């Protein structure tokens, strides 16, 4: 309770510092950093983005955090806020996230058979599935492949998917379940990953909405509209978020960015 009180006390200072404050799931970081820069130049405004796990951000919003827009990596959290009357206007779907298994730079195991690799007792980082969609998706993947019980003793939990990336990069974990959208093109990490097919793609349905009571609803709405522009749609794909019409059936192959 004390931690929540301290957090709530800091919100007014955060809200007054910028024209627009966005709460976003960690996997949006690279994409939103790019989009925000473009929007700030177009609108001549200051935008602040707070990144975290979808579940924890949703809880903050329900406790009165002064955010203007919410970006979630799982539609369940968005539905929860909508049912609670915390949102205004339409919930917009940005696309579907893609789950990736990333190996650390020290790993010597090739990804020919990733499941066999994970069952060798190496440390495997995963975002906390209780509030992080990519963690929940990773558990779902392991269970669907029938290896969760074998791999679970090796799982190391992080608060969100961005922290999983840090654990793998630092060598604190041998492998990690991360978001494709957090792996930059042309980097070494792009050569040490494997995209994993999900049977339930809706586990990583990426959505955003304007929050009821936003300090600047018009500006927040313009940002949401900005997200729908054709060049931004192409940007989403480049950062590993597939458009809705690309993942409508299980027959569509999963692929990386190109």
Total separate domains: 2
Q: Which spans of ≥5 residues are poorly predicted at pLDDT below 50?
A: 1-15, 247-258
Instruction: Give Rg in angstroms.
Output: 18 Å
CATH superfamily of the largest domain: Periplasmic binding protein-like II
Mean pLDDT, as a whole number? 87
Number of alpha- plus pi-helical segments: 10
Name the assembly state. Answer: single chain
User: Which sequence of strands runs across the widest sheet?
Assistant: 2-1-3-10-4
Q: Approximately what portion of the residues adopt beta-strand conformation?
A: 15-25%
Query: How far is the first residue's CA from the last residue's CA?
Result: 46 Å
Known CATH architecture of the largest domain: 3-Layer(aba) Sandwich
Q: What's the total count of β strands?
A: 10
Helix % is 25-40%
Structural class of the helices, strands and pairings?
alpha/beta
Secondary structure layout plus pairing:
Blueprint: H1 2-17, E1 20-25, H2 29-43, E2 47-52, H3 54-62, E3 69-72, H4 75-83, E4 87-96, E5 99-103, H5 114-118, E6 124-127, H6 133-144, H7 148-151, E7 155-158, H8 161-170, E8 175-179, E9 193-195, E10 205-211, H9 217-226, H10 230-238
Parallel strand pairs: 1-2, 1-3, 6-7, 6-8
Antiparallel strand pairs: 3-10, 4-10, 5-8, 5-9
Helix pairs in contact: 3-4
């Amino acid at each position: 309770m004390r931690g929540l009180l301290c957090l709530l006390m800091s919100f007014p200072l955060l809200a007054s510092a910028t024209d627009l404050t966005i709460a976003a799931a960690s996997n949006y970081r690279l994409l939103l950093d790019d989009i925000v820069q473009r929007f700030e130049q177009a609108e001549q405004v200051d935008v602040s983005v707070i990144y975290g796990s979808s579940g924890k951000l949703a809880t903050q919003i329900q406790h009165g955090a002064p955010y203007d827009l919410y970006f979630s990596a799982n539609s369940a959290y968005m539905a929860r806020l909508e049912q609670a009357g915390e949102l205004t206007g339409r919930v917009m779907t940005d696309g579907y996230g893609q789950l990736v298994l990333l190996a650390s730079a020290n790993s010597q195991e090739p990804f020919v058979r990733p499941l066999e690799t994970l069952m060798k007792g190496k440390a495997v980082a995963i975002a906390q599935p209780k509030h992080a969609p990519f963690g929940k998706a990773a558990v779902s993947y392991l269970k669907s492949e029938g290896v969760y019980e074998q791999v679970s003793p090796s799982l190391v939990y992080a608060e969100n998917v961005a922290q999983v990336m840090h654990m793998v990069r630092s060598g604190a974990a041998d492998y990690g379940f991360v978001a494709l959208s957090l792996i930059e093109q042309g980097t070494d990490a792009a050569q040490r990953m494997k995209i994993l097919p999900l049977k339930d793609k809706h586990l990583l349905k990426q959505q955003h909405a304007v929050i009821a009571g936003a300090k600047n609803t018009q500006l927040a709405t313009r940002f949401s509209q900005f997200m729908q522009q054709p060049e931004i749609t192409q940007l989403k794909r480049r950062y590993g978020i597939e458009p809705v019409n690309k993942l409508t059936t299980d027959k569509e192959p999963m692929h990386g960015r190109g």
